[in-house]
Each structure stands twice: as structure tokens, then as C-alpha cells.
Task: structure prediction
Amino acid sequence: MTEHSNRRLRDQFSGTPTFVAENMRIVGNLHGNGPVIVCGRIEGDGEITGAVQLAAGARWHGNLHAEHAIVAGEIDGNVAIDDKLEVGFSAVIKGTVRAKSIAIAKGAVIEGQVQVTGTAPPTHFAEKRTPGQ
Result:
């Protein structure tokens, strides 16, 4: 186990983020390096090398592929995460979810299949932090 294995994924984000503000709407596919923080709306597919954080109230219409992700908003599309995925209590995902490891908060909604590619089953937890912390 690494030094960060017990830390929340949010605490492990590093680098200068690309930020999509709350009142911003982007139409088109996103390709690039993370971290990417979305508080607004994306309409298109995402291919992100690195981490993606989708804030509560944010919306993504399209497929998302990233290395790591935290989802607190809504995704209408398939989600493929190469490593860790954290699904917050306010999240709604309508599509297939695939990740090496998945942590799902009580209250989160996933309307589709969940596939764990690693050896551990999905972890379920009660959210203790308020959104934005």
C-alpha cells in the first residue's frame, strides 16, 4: 500500500487544474491532461489523462474516460476510469461505470452496470464532508 492509499481521492489531486466554471457550458469533446474540475456543463466526450472532478450541480452529457475521478454531479454517458473512482452522495450516473476501484456514497444513484476491474468489490460509505470541502 502506498502512503496515499487511505486518503480521499480529492486530497490526491495535483497540478494546475483546468476549471469549467458554474455558469460555463462547453460543447465538444475534451482531450488533454488533468486535473479537470467541472462546475458547469460539458456536452461531449472526455478523454482525460489524469484526474477529473465533477462538482455537485455540474452536468456531463457524453462519455468520460480518465485516470481518476470524483463525481458529485450528473453524468449521462458511460464512465471508464483507469484507477480510482469516487461517487459522491449527490451523484447521478446514467450509463455503464467501469473502474479499477470504486467508492460509492450512500445516496448516490447509478442507473447502469457497475464493473470493477480490480480485485476489491465496490466500497460503500456515508459522506462525512460537505460538498466543496
